[in-house]
Design brief:
Sodium/glucose cotransporter; mainly alpha; 23 helices; 2 domains; 580 residues
């Protein structure tokens, strides 16, 4: 296991170095919270994609693939559709010119809505980040057999370090580096799994095998799985739940860091392509594990053996030495979710909560230097908070990961997202509608919680259907309020939509770009990582294993070389583009 620990150590050090290098780009709250609106499409798109996955992808979701075949892929299909629609919506979100999504809540609705959503995010976002951190512990336990609390504390500390030093810049940069390693390695696992099972035709042939046919049909019969999961009703409702997460004003945070409207469009396309490729690459291996390694998976001495299906097949197929890198990739996936939640929440505290408090106290606005110091201080405090929640989650033993994730989204997240979904598409929606729609959506949600405590069982799909219905009713009830809106509010809403549809002129509104710096640092890091991966060639392996390692290291290094080539072109075109 020594090589796995060395690999993890080197990888985590690389992430901290990248975060430290990007710290020089931070001079104010906007830089820390959204990279000053200077991110390139490839870095922002990769970061947006990485923020949507975690170790849960390779544990809870891999478990669903192992147990029930392709049914749950409806979630990832919805992700792809949502990101494809962001080809149009991404530029709109960037064109709000906001620093945080709470700014958008204020401009579209009201300052009270900004404050309500900001304070509530202090509860929800850290819990979401902690849930992802907790999910990681299962994968780690399957590979290294190390104590869960130690993993949570160490990884949380690493994320804290680079998020505190580099802010949003470090988050985007490390997300790209982690995404590059993750994809290269999981593509290798995909190819090896496909070869092991005998090719695509043999793989799909297993779907009609009597041992798997019932479980692997796309639409399941009612009562076939607990809580009627994977039935038509489940598929339709979960698809809508996942899709609407991309079609509301809260999604804007994914695109606020990008340079301009054109880069926002391309970042959405890039994230969509990555999600589509990932959907294929990530979930074939756990299905192959069901066909070929079911006894080994189910024999794992952990709470939910199926959650280790990806780890088991990776252990069986990867060349010697690469499991440490696989674990690093899984850690990276979770860390990308945690650092994004951490950065978003910090930005909201310093940009939206503290200024309102200072206004009420009659104090002047924060200076750039003070704002930046507060960003770093609150990042540390929030990071500790997330680690503590992660440790508490690790102690509970009752909730399935897959169900817990959907439960949080359905019962808490969905009611809060409904008014910001409707607020994007319905212009004549009064700011008071925000509270009316949430209030109506919470009625069934609260009822389900109370009745469940009394012993009544409600499926996810039933909860969602009722919440959607009551949200729509709340919207219809609140529509007449527009006639009572003041002329000032009507003008505010008109100005918001006008700005949201006006393209960003980067040179006029932002000024000097940081493209060259991004290409240089990320390119150099990727080349270095590619070379480090090739050191695994010295680990005892067959010729085939060494060729696989060579291909893996080369793919990472080539991407880095392409980024450095682009950096050199930028230097030639504009020598001033080089940051000293």
């Amino acid at each position: 296991m020594t090589i796995e620990y060395i690999t993890l150590g080197v990888y985590l050090v690389v992430l901290m170095v990248v975060g430290a290098l990007f710290s020089k780009l931070n001079s104010n709250v906007s830089d820390f919270a959204r990279g000053g609106g200077k991110g390139t499409w490839w870095m922002v798109g990769t970061s947006a994609f990485m923020a949507g996955i975690s170790a849960f992808t390779f544990t809870g979701n891999a478990s669903a693939a192992f147990i029930a075949g392709p049914s749950f892929l409806v979630i990832y299909f919805a992700n792809c559709v949502g990101l494809a629609l962001c080809f149009i919506l991404g530029p709109w979100f960037r064109q709000t010119r906001a620093t945080t999504w709470a700014d958008i809540m204020r401009e579209r609705f009201h300052v009270s809505v900004e404050q309500f959503s900001a304070y509530f995010s202090l509860i929800i976002q850290p819990i979401s980040a902690a849930t992802q951190l907790y999910a990681l512990s299962i994968f780690t336990a399957a590979i290294l057999q190390v104590p869960v609390p130690g993993v949570i504390v160490v990884l949380g500390g690493i994320v804290l370090f680079y998020s505190t030093t580099g802010g949003r810049w470090a988050v985007m940069a490390t997300d790209f580096v982690q995404g590059l390693v993750l994809f290269s390695l999981t593509v290798l696992v995909f190819v090896l799994a496909l070869k092991e099972v005998g090719g695509l035709s043999t793989f799909f042939g297993y779907f009609s095998d009597p041992r798997f046919a019932d479980d692997f049909q796309f639409v399941k019969e009612k009562g076939q799985f607990p809580a009627d999961k994977f039935t038509w009703k489940w598929i339709v409702v979960v698809f809508i739940l996942q899709l609407q997460g991309y079609l509301n004003l809260g999604t804007a945070s994914r695109f606020l860091s990008v340079k301009d409207s054109r880069n926002a469009r391309w970042s959405a396309v890039w994230a969509c392509l990555l999600m589509a490729l990932g959907t294929v690459v990530w979930f074939l291996p756990p299905m192959v594990a069901r066909f070929l390694y079911a006894d080994q998976v189910l024999g794992m001495d952990i709470k939910e053996p199926a959650t280790a299906s990806y780890a088991v097949i990776a252990q069986n197929l990867l060349p010697n030495g690469l499991m440490g890198l696989m674990l690093a990739a899984m850690l990276a996936a979770t860390m990308s979710s945690m650092d994004t939640g951490l950065n978003n929440t910090t930005g909201i505290i310093v940009n939206n909560i503290i200024p309102r408090i200072r206004e009420k106290l009659g104090k002047k606005a924060l200076s750039d230097r003070t704002g930046l110091l507060l960003c770093r201080a609150f990042t540390i405090l929030l990071g500790v908070y997330i680690i503590v929640i992660g440790l508490l989650l690790a102690l509970q033993k009752e909730i399935s990961l897959f169900d817990a994730y959907l439960m949080i989204s359905a019962v808490v997240g969905l009611p809060l997202s409904m008014p910001i979904l409707m607020g994007l598409w319905i212009k004549r929606l009064h700011w008071a509608s925000y509270y009316i729609i949430i209030g109506m959506a919470l009625i069934p949600s609260i009822y389900f919680v109370i009745s469940s405590a009394g012993g009544t069982s409600w499926t996810i799909q039933d909860r969602l259907a009722w919440i959607y219905g009551f949200s729509l009713l709340g919207c219809l009830i609140s529509l007449p309020l527009w006639k009572y809106a003041s002329s000032a509010y009507r003008e505010q809403v008109r100005a918001f939509y006008e700005k949201m549809h006006r393209p960003v002129d980067f040179s006029e509104e932002i000024g000097q770009s940081e493209d060259a710096f991004q290409y240089k640092i990320i390119g150099s890091t990727a080349v270095a990582l590619g070379i480090l991966i090739m050191l695994f060639l010295f680990v005892p392996n067959s010729l085939g294993g060494r060729l696989q390692i060579l291909a893996l290291g080369s793919s990472v290094a080539v991407v880095g070389a392409l980024l450095l080539w682009r950096w050199k072109k930028l230097k030639v075109q504009d020598p001033r583009a080089e940051r000293s």
